[in-house]
Write a structure and sequence with these properties.
single chain; 453 residues; alpha+beta; two-stranded antiparallel sheet; globular
């Protein structure tokens, strides 16, 4: 049996009743956190939301699934698209460390749209979200890290997860799920060119990924065929999207026994995960030694190579570019003593004190620390003060990791803060309660009604 076949069999045979309780809880938390990020984008970046909605309205079509907050109905593929754009709109969504995918951003919208279009319920949504996550990150682990030189791993690898879950929800056979995976492989796309510019394409990528995943499921359902060995074929996805030998065993090792979703990392700050260990280190040093911004002469972070090669923009010109810049995240945290949503506005980015601090930040790629990545996200941060003192803090696991946990209470508080400005605090708490009891909802439309203004 090929690895593609094994993945398809796993998806076909796994139902809600097969999932361990901790996996179900992790699936619910991913759904909660992703929906919070979707709704938060409509407040923090309304133009992005309006653009996504306008694209879908321009094309229109069958009313199958809900554009959250806005409330109008769209074909499932377009509902997945608009909600996928929103989910990644403020870079506050989860990350799987080894696959380096923001998995919830394309997977939850694909699962939500497909569940609604199929007339299914909460158990189906949870199962689909978990299965989509597992397929996505296994594909990601297979082609990383060289995949990340050019490709937006969220947009590419998660196409397979969206295809698998939508085919599952649409009642496809095992053979049809194989076809859905094949169709996903030939559509997967999304480049990292946005890294410097922080433009709409960063959010467009997971939206289109979610669209492509659902499209693959729909196409497989009506009889479209595809290469049956897309993931391991010499001219297939894994070899084409990886500049070294792909780790094909990652596709199936521990499949159905080791659930990768248990290691999903939610974000406490709205910036790329690589910035979180140094943010945590700066906050700890400021608090422990009462360091003020005016005391600082220099800040150095020693870390793994990708931070230096990918996330080192010293001149961010947009809020998204700032979220993707580790030097900026360090500088603003050192100045403001925080790294929340207010720290990623153009006013704050252009603050002379923040800009001056940015000049004092140095990122050093450390070969020894690079050996620890991606199991660890090492950050060794040193603040040198103007009076000649030096203070160092080491953080090896981002907050939210299993080894540096983020509490359920904090996760729900984050959701309320993101959701209440749009829907109100009472509705935010109602949504939390609904997700915590999602398995009791027989028709998911009962749930999507809560997500509309």
């Amino acid at each position: 049996m090929t690895r593609t076949e094994q993945l398809a069999k796993f998806v076909y045979n796994t139902n809600y009743e097969n999932l361990p309780s901790n996996v179900v809880k992790s699936g619910k938390n991913m759904i909660l956190d992703t929906i919070g990020c979707m709704i938060g984008t409509t407040v923090e970046d309304p133009q992005k939301a309006e653009t996504a909605w306008a694209i879908a309205k321009e094309i229109g079509g069958k009313e199958e699934a809900t554009a959250i907050v806005a409330g109008f109905k769209l074909p499932a593929v377009w509902a997945a698209f608009v909600n996928g754009v929103l989910a990644h709109g403020i870079d506050f969504d989860d990350t799987h460390k080894e696959a380096l995918t923001h998995t919830g951003a394309p997977i939850v919208p694909a699962a939500l749209a497909s569940t609604e279009a199929a007339g299914l319920g909460g158990k189906d949504l949870i199962t689909a979200a978990v299965l989509g996550f597992e397929v996505s990150v296994r594909v990601g682990m297979t082609v990383m890290p060289t995949h990340y030189k050019y490709w937006h791993s969220t947009a590419t690898n998660c196409t397979f997860g969206g295809a698998a879950l939508s085919a599952k929800l649409f009642g496809c056979s095992e053979e049809q799920i194989i076809n859905a995976l094949g169709l996903a492989g030939t559509q997967a796309a999304g480049l990292l060119t946005y890294m410097e510019f922080g433009d709409f394409s960063k959010s467009f990528n997971p939206g289109k990924c979610s669209f492509n995943g659902v499209l693959s499921g729909v196409a497989a359902k009506v009889g479209a065929s595809a290469p049956p060995t897309m993931l391991e074929h010499p001219r297939g996805y894994s070899f084409a999207y990886c500049s070294e030998e792909p780790k094909l065993d990652k596709l199936v090792d521990g499949l159905g026994v080791k659930y990768e979703i248990l290691g999903n990392v939610p974000k406490p700050w709205p910036s790329l995960l690589a910035s979180h260990p140094p943010i945590e280190a700066i906050l700890a040093l400021r608090k422990e030694y009462a360091i003020q911004a005016e005391d600082i002469a220099k800040i150095t972070e020693r870390t793994y190579n990708t931070v230096k090669s990918h996330f080192c923009n010293y001149n961010p010109q947009t809020t998204m570019a700032a979220r993707l810049s580790v030097p900026y995240c360090i500088a603003v945290t050192a100045v403001k003593g925080a790294a929340g949503l207010p720290e990623f506005t153009m006013e704050t980015i252009n603050d002379p004190q923040v800009q001056e601090m940015l000049k004092k930040v140095e990122i050093i790629a450390d070969p020894e620390l690079n050996k620890l990545y991606p199991e660890k996200f090492p950050a060794v941060v040193t603040i040198e003060t103007k009076d000649g003192k030096s203070f160092t803090k080491e953080i090896y696991y981002p907050l939210g990791d299993l080894k540096n946990p983020y509490s359920q209470e904090k996760l729900e508080d984050k959701f309320i803060k993101l959701t209440a400005p749009s829907l109100g605090e009472a509705r935010a708490k109602e949504i939390i309660n609904a997700i915590n009891n999602l398995e009791q909802i027989s028709n998911i439309q009962e749930f999507t009604k809560l997500l509309v203004k």
